[in-house]
Amino acid sequence: MLIDDLAYSNKLRGIHPAEKASFALLSMFASMLAKNYFLPLVIVVLNTILVTRFAGIKFKILLKIWMTPLIFGAVGFFAIIFTCCNPDGMGLLGAGVAGGEGGRGIVAISLERENLTFVIQRMLNFLGCVSSLFFLILTTPFGNIIHLLRCLRVPSIFLELVTISHRSIFILMDTVKLMRSAQISRLGYSNFHTSFRSFGLLVSTLLVHSLLRTRRSWAALLARGYQQEIWLLSPANCFHFSCRRLAFGLFIGILLIFVALNF
User: Fold this and answer.
1) Residue 136: which of 260, 16, 256 has the closest Cα?
2) Are 61 and 1 in contact (CB under 8 A)?
3) What is the pTM of this model?
4) Domain spans, the chain
5) pLDDT tens digits for range 128-185
6) pLDDT tens column, 60-108
C-alpha cells in the first residue's frame, strides 16, 4: 500500500511520534475552528512543505494521494451548494421546473450566495484537516502510532480494533490487486463489454475471497499464541525525541489555534 510504504521510507520516520502527532492534532483543530479563508490555506501549505521538503516525499505522489479526499469532498460539498426554493426567490443561479399558472416553475434549484460562502469555508477547513492528517500518516509508521496510543493508556480493545481494521484494508487491497491482475492476463479488460463484465465479477467475488483470507489471518494469529491483545514491534530506542522540536511544534499549533479563535 502506497501510504504505508511512504510512512516507512520517509526522512521523518525516526522522529518520535508524539512530536508529529501533537503538531498534527493542534493544526487540525485550528483548521476546524478557522473562520477565514487564509488560515486553512496556510495550514495546507505548511503541511505540504513538511511532507515534500523535510520528509522527502515527491509532490506528484502527494498529489496522487490527495485525489481521493478531493473527489469525495467535491461530491459532498456540491450537494450542499444548491437548495430547493420558491421560483421567485432564486439566488445567483437557478433552474425551475415548468408548471403552474403562466408556465411559471413550481420547483426551483437555486445557488445562494450564503451557501456558496459557507461551502467555500467548509471546503478549506476540510482541506486543512486532511493535510494535517496526511502529515501524520505519511511520516509515521502504523506501529509507531499504536505505540504512542499504548503509551497514552488507550484501551487495548480499541487498539486491537484499529490494528485488525488496518490489516483488513491491506487484505482487501491485495485481493483486488491479485484478482485484477488475473483478469488482465486473461484479456478481461480488452474492450468495454469485457471490462464491464470483469468489473462485475470482481465486485461479486471480492467479499468471498476477502473473508477467506481474513479467516486464514485469524488462524495464523491463533497459531502464534494470540491472547486477546496484539503487540506490534516498535522499540522506543529507535525514536529521536527532542524537547526542542516538541516545544516548537506545540508553539506553532497553539499559535494557529489562537489565530483561528481571534481572526
Assistant:
1) 16
2) no
3) 0.79
4) 1-141+239-263, 153-233
5) 999 999 999 999 988 888 888 888 888 888 888 888 888 778 778 888 888 888 888 8
6) 999 999 998 998 888 888 777 766 655 555 555 544 444 444 444 455 5
